[in-house]
Amino acid sequence: MLTNLFYPHKKYHIARRVKIKNTDLGFMCNIAYEADLRDSIVGKRTSIGRFTTMRNCTIGSYCAVSWNVSLGAKDHHYDFASISAAIHQERFGLIPKSFKMPGETPKTTIGNDVWIGCNAVILSGVSIGDGAVIGAGAVVTKDVAPYSIVAGCPAHHIRYRFEKEIRENLMKAQWWNWDDTKMQNNIDLFHQKMNKDISLKMCTIGEESSRYTDTLYKTDFESNMKVMSNDVKAGIWYTVGNFVNRGIAFARAPIFTRMLSKEDYGAFSNFTAWATIMVAITSLDMYTSISRAYQDYEEDFDTYMSTISWISITFSALCYIVLWIFKSWAINLFGMDFLYINMMFLYLIFSPAAQLFMSWQRIRGKYKTAIFVSVGSALLSLILSVVMVLNCQNKLWGRIL
Question: Which domains does the chain have, with CATH numbers?
Fold first, then answer.
């Protein structure tokens, strides 16, 4: 189950077959293939590796979690009569749905800039400090101090990443709470081996920051609020746009029922019905794949877009050639003159490109452009249709044009 999935503005990247439930994702975090996150919070720019599971866990910003890691899994009550799940879960048929286990699973808390190696297990209720390193395959059963390196089963302290003065400076700096501008202006500090001078400079920058926070696990609130405000604005614009489009569509019926004869109005309805069916066939509905492709083929997305555009155009042209060869059959199938069939396929060639453009605008968060084009084209189409019907001898031809 996917919740909080949001592609516009590239708020975060989610790979295929990921399960997310009741989980808040921080700005620009990365969730890899088949990860399973539930009842958790992920900080900004944190990476979660493939096959990793999170349960009732809070993890800070700029963390790196490797593959097949278990974070905050529920414990079995070995001090009860049985450790079997069948005794405590209603799906096995022994207890009612209303049953709840006594007590609550304690939350697992992981700080910022934490590296967790592959196959590590972090038990529920454990707290891991900022900057800690958890070795591959470690089973962490107790709290880990900031900047401590631990490994083993059970995990034990091996050494600290830095000497005490450097650790204290970094904890004061809290660089993981810096805004993007401050990170970009000081990125060179992160590209060299840590020493006292660098840590002191980072501490000074952190203390000067107007973004001071009293929590060690604060995500980028301003970035999230900015994206949230864009969500709200996009929702309002799309609602207004859909309302206007529906109003224009509603206005067409009384206008053209008075301007067209019953025969022409019925013929046009037949034309639009077939055009709708043929759009789905000739475009192969590939525009619906854009959201997924935007994640899976991010670096080659322009190539992907151009490829599916040419596929749609080519397939439309092939269908037209087939119908041209079997012209009589096509006329009987569609129930219209072949001139109108030509007009329909001219529409089919350009329609997929328009759909791809609109889908692309929505994914990029260009909601104003999408609404302007959608409403503008609908209104322009209505006006031009009225003008053409009034000025053409063949009113059906004018309506189709």
Answer: 8-161 (2.160.10.10), 163-219 (no CATH), 221-400 (no CATH)
